Amino acid sequence: MCATLSVGLAFAAACMSDRGESEATELAPDPADPFELQVGDCFDDTAMGVNEVTEVPGLPCSTPHDNEVFALFDLPSGPFPGDEAIDAMAGQGCYDRFESAIGRRYEESELAFVSMYPTEGSWTQIGDREVVCIAYDMEYAKLIGSVLGSGR
């Protein structure tokens, strides 16, 4: 089993996506706002600041790509629980959703995951509670097609 890596979402203006479910795998090949990611969105690795992601380079899943969003969920309301607690809750939440999204137990999969989650700034200033669960090939090979339900 690979260790779960986690990164925080940058504080940015939160906005909800206007894309429908059928558009989820058609994330534009331009930098996309991490607050607009949906399950099924594919993108390449991104340069990060100090654990902050401000944009992701979106790609259609039919082209070679590094990552795919496999789950989204919100953390409970309340005061910011601290970086370690957020990291643990995000990692566990993504782990718990992995098998149903991918179609294979995490320990048996060729995929690993990383989670993006709120920073203290986005938590307190804009009420950000969303965790984005992102699958990638544990050998860092490019993915082609969606990993959702793939059994990989």
Structure notes:
Helix content is 18%, strand content 26%. With 152 residues, it is of the alpha+beta class. It has one domain (6-10, 27-137). The longest helix is centred in the middle third of the chain and has 20 residues, at 83-102.
Mean model confidence by pLDDT: 81
Instruction: Report the major sheet.
Output: 8 strands, mixed
Content-based structural category: alpha+beta
| Major beta sheet, strand line-up | 2-5-3-6-8-7-1-4
Share of helical residues: 10-25%
Number of domains: 1
**Rg measurement, Å:** 14 Å
Beta-strand content bin: 25-35%
* Gross geometry: globular
How many beta-strand runs?
A: 8
Low-confidence stretches: 1-25
Helical run tally: 2
What is the H-and-E element order? Answer: EEEEEEHEHE
Can you tag this structure with a few keywords?
8 strands, 152 residues, eight-stranded mixed beta sheet, alpha+beta, disordered N terminus
Write the layout of secondary structure elements.
Elements: E1 5-9, E2 31-32, E3 42-43, E4 52-53, E5 56-59, E6 67-74, H1 83-102, E7 111-118, H2 120-126, E8 130-137
Parallel strand pairs: 1-4, 1-7
Antiparallel strand pairs: 2-5, 3-5, 3-6, 6-8, 7-8
Q: In short, what is this structure?
A:
With 152 residues, the protein is α+β, with helices and mostly antiparallel strands. The chain has helices at 83-102, 120-126, and strands at residues 5-9, 31-32, 42-43, 52-53, 56-59, 67-74, 111-118, 130-137. The radius of gyration is 14 Å and the shape is globular.
